[in-house]
Amino acid sequence: MSDPSTRCPRCGAPRAAGPECPACGVIYLRAEVRAATRQAEERDAAKRDAVLHEAEDQRLALSEALEAHAVPTFVPLLVAAQPEQDPRLEGITFHTEETSGEGLLEARLRLCVLPAALLVAYLTVRSSGFGGVLRIVLTMPLHELGHAVTAWLCGFSATPFLWVTSVSEERSTLIPLAMAGLQAALVYQGWKRRQWTWMGVGAVLLLAQAVGTLGLDRMQGQALVTFGGDAGMMVLGTALMATFYVPPEHSLRRHALRWGFVAIGAAAFMDGFEQWWAALSHVERIPFGSIDGVGLSDPSKLVQTYGWNISHLIRRYVAVGITCLVALGLLYLGALWRVRGLLRRGTSTAG
Asked: 290-291 and 165-167: which strand pairing?
């Protein structure tokens, strides 16, 4: 075999004495550089392939060794015996007595706080000195808010103040749409987060919005707005008292806000209910007349302007109060039922 240096690196013809190949015209020096570079790249590629093949062989050998000496896996019998979880229940958290963080103290609070709050509120409302202060400080804002919420549910625009609520004479187009949108959003979020209480409240509000806006004429709606002062105060007070039974992780419980809400709610409910319950036998308890700077009181407006019968007026307020008490009683009994085991253990321990 001839020496490569005596031949052209490109065409292999015998190498001439000059710098160029007479056969192909390539410059010998450039062709030699390119040839040397190509050979170096081929050697590097061969080395890389060899390293990769060696690494792959080592990985396969290690994997086979691990499989040969692996500890067999098994499922404990108790785990295998457990039924598979229903996929429809995925994401739902079940709070039990042991996992919900409710101790014996919370169980006793559920037993005592609500009746105690209603009793203290009743005694305060009956007091000649504290009753007026209670109405000014705590219950009057909820009374005016009751007017406003009723107006919104009937399609009127309303702005509540401390002693009076400004209500439009005609129905608004924007208010019912905005309220329905918020209520529908509450239903959707309740369905999305599996918060059935949200869904129930949203559905009830949607129904009330439809009845108040579409089922009542303007005069009936205005009468209901007037009625919604004391009636709304009792309903809102009941809702505030219900917040005492929120779950342990709720912010109202973590920040102790439920204590203030149950006190305000009990005062508002009892302020309205005690007056109208007493009016069943003492009609003089009804606050007929006019208020300076405001006009006729709510009972006077309902009787004189909208033609309500006094006995019907009393019974309707009492019916609202009794309905609130029934709902609150069911909530109270349900809360006690959930902690019945803790209460029994606490009673047996004390005995």
From this structure: unpaired
